[in-house]
Design a protein that fits this description.
alpha/beta, 6-stranded mixed beta sheet, 4-stranded antiparallel beta sheet, globular, binds adenosine-5'-triphosphate
């Protein structure tokens, strides 16, 4: 898979080159089952999903339907039992662990219900961290982190540590941190699940604004049907299969 420059195709893709103008992330006929003493539990079967740039897709479904499992597979955190996951046209089933790590690091942003900010660092440093890991200089990382915090109205809070921020502010920091490396895909698991309804709506509004400005393809699992309906597209997991409901 390496070319003369020494880079593999997936490394070039993770470095920002797109294969074509189509789906950024695609699940094809994906299934996932778990084996335990009681037998086989099939959580996903025949799941097809294409995420397009700039589009926000809500993922809904009852508790235990498999939303987190689907997000883990889409985020290359776990492999499907069957089917394919394509990142910018490239089948990730063929990728090495290192190539998958590169795609996750440079191509995919994650937001969770609980923000996982680093408590001993300021808001600014938390947003700088993934950029420093990706090899940006401190100056560049700081400048971009400032712009991002500004975008979500937190310019006055950049020196605050997470404990000094409200829940909504912490989640806004987590969101801009997840997109600091301008990933092609954003995957979010209940990103506003621990916020009050008003703050959840505000955080969602800002998340949408960032996504359409950056052309990120987003998949957001939520139990909040009202917020889901406000997104471009809604898919529902029911009995292991995915249904397009908006
Ligand atoms: N590693 C595992 N081993 C066995 N079963 C698992 C494993 N991971 C998930 N499951 C099962 O898969 C099903 C789907 O779980 P998942 O967490 O994906 O659902 P969910 O839709 O995200 O639920 P919730 O909305 O409650 O967060 C559940 O029945 C869960 O118990």
């Amino acid at each position: 898979m390496s070319d003369v420059s020494g880079m593999t195709e997936i490394e070039r893709i993770a470095a920002g080159e797109t294969a074509d103008g189509g789906a950024v992330l695609e699940l094809r006929n994906v299934s996932r089952s778990f084996e335990d003493a009681g037998g086989t539990l099939t959580v996903l079967q025949g799941v097809n999903l294409s995420l397009m740039p700039g589009q926000v897709t809500a993922l809904v479904g009852p508790s235990g339907a498999g939303k987190s499992t689907l997000l883990h597979i889409a985020g290359l955190l776990e492999a499907p039992t069957g089917g394919e996951v394509l990142f910018q046209g490239q089948d990730c089933g063929d990728a090495s662990d290192w190539e998958r790590t590169l795609i996750r690091r440079d191509g995919i942003g994650f937001v969770y219900q609980f923000h996982h900010l680093l408590p001993e660092f300021s808001a600014l440093e938390n947003v700088m961290m993934p950029q420093l890991i990706a090899g940006l200089s401190r100056r560049e990382a700081k400048e971009r982190a400032r712009q991002l915090l500004n975008l979500v109205g937190l310019e006055e809070r950049e020196t605050h540590r997470p404990a000094k921020l409200s829940g909504g502010e912490q989640q806004r920091v987590a969101i801009v941190r997840s997109i600091a490396n301008v990933p092609a895909v954003l995957l979010a698991d209940e990103p506003t699940g621990n916020l009050d309804p008003h703050t959840a709506e505000e955080v969602f509004r800002q998340l949408r604004r960032i996504i359409s400005a950056t052309r990120i393809a987003a998949l957001i699992a939520t139990h909040n049907h009202e917020l889901a309906r406000a997104m471009d597209r809604v898919v529902e997991l029911r009995d292991g299969t995915l249904h397009e409901i908006k």
